[in-house]
Amino acid sequence: MALSTLLSLLALLPAALAIKPRCFEFDHPVHVSLTVPTFNVPKFSNSYESTAFLTASVSRNANLSSLVTGEVKIDRAFKIHFQYCEPEKCTRAPDVLQVLSHGVGFDRSYWNFGDSEYNYIASTTGHGYATLSYDRLGVGFSEQADPYSEIQVPTQVAILAEVSKLLQHGKLHKRISKPKKLVHVGHSFGSLITNGLVAASPSLSDGVVLTGFSQNTSWTPLFELCLGFELARTNNPARFHGYDSGYLTWGNEYDNQCAFYTYPFFDTHVLKQAERIKAPFAISELLSFASVPLAAPNFTGPVLMLSGQSDLPFCGGDCTGVLEGPASVSPFVFPSAQPFVSYIQPNTGHALNLHYNASAAYEVIHGFLKEHVH
Ligand SMILES: *[C@@H]1O[C@H](CO)[C@@H](O)[C@H](O)[C@H]1NC(C)=O
Ligand SMILES: *[C@@H]1O[C@H](CO)[C@@H](O)[C@H](O)[C@H]1NC(C)=O
Ligand SMILES: *[C@@H]1O[C@H](CO)[C@@H](O)[C@H](O)[C@H]1NC(C)=O
Ligand SMILES: *[C@@H]1O[C@H](CO)[C@@H](O)[C@H](O)[C@H]1NC(C)=O
């Protein structure tokens, strides 16, 4: 966009947006080296085949382990797209940097959604933190790697680990100085990646916030059935025409609502906007969902797990007794966390940031981090 167009657009923005955080974006190649399983999934040639695959994978005789045929080594760099933000009026870099990992169906704009009401980054920088959000591999401006093999949960965890190492050494970008503390915040699938990170590499994080999450994956099929598996490129040719057939999405805004929202606790314009900017997911990400270890006995930092009361994918529609209580595994996943705290955000579904009252949930997060990370 030409600078003059940009300036005239800026002039049209309401005053509230003028005090946005100071941000910049960049790409960086992130090198990872790991071994991942190979899956025996025939490439989809249309949405009938991908839908049939979904039906088969949630049927009572399904056995996803039987799809694994071997393993393959990944040893290369992937282009990842980042956005760094800091408080507008800061003279030196904030002590605490929050690394934000978004979930399925979104890109990094999940953290930066619309005006201040839903905008996590604006709220967070307002509290004096710096943030680094990024498009997950395969999403947004990050590389469209092979969705049948390369884009798996362990790959995403390895990318987050490498990014965290670079940040700890002040080497990700010349304008991002070494933070005193690195905190990791996830939503949904991004929480899974974040949990996997501190399970594998506890020294890479000084604090963790897992939103829209639990370690109980019993209800994943409900989520998948709400979504449906359409080829992204046929669902929305205008946006996804060049995408490989292994990139999937759901049908329409009502499927989106079914999986991510609890009526009537959201603004339907917000849902429509989320639908307009939705991001595809890769088939091998879903197949590798349960493939990284989550138990983090050596992580001694603070952990906050915060989910919407009616979260469908991770709580089966009711988080009471899932995040904590006798049937919950979460405290055992983080036995050494100092402390482990769970919190249920009332009147909220899975897309926590996009329900009414999201900004009050942000205050719960900031309050926790102010108390436990300094
Ligand atoms: C699922 O498939 C794996 C690998 O083929 C096999 O070892 C396992 O016994 C199967 N499980 C069931 C319940 O059939
Ligand atoms: C998931 O939660 C349900 C209900 O609280 C419980 O019965 C089940 O054992 C849990 N499963 C796992 C793997 O934690
Ligand atoms: C935790 O640390 C101990 C001691 O360093 C090590 O033996 C163990 O493998 C670690 N456990 C995990 C799950 O990383
Ligand atoms: C809004 O969220 C805050 C923080 O979780 C909570 O205390 C309050 O009850 C919520 N309000 C409503 C109307 O849900």
UniProtKB/TrEMBL annotation:
Annotated ranges, domain AB hydrolase-1: 99-355
Tree of life domain: Eukaryota
Keywords per UniProt: Hydrolase, Signal
Alphabetized GO MF terms: hydrolase activity
Signal sequence, start to end: 1-18
UniProt cross-references to InterPro entries, sorted A to Z: AB_hydrolase_1, AB_hydrolase_fold
Coiled coil region boundaries: none
Pfam families linked to this entry: Abhydrolase_6
Protein name: Alpha/Beta hydrolase protein
Protein's organism: Aspergillus keveii
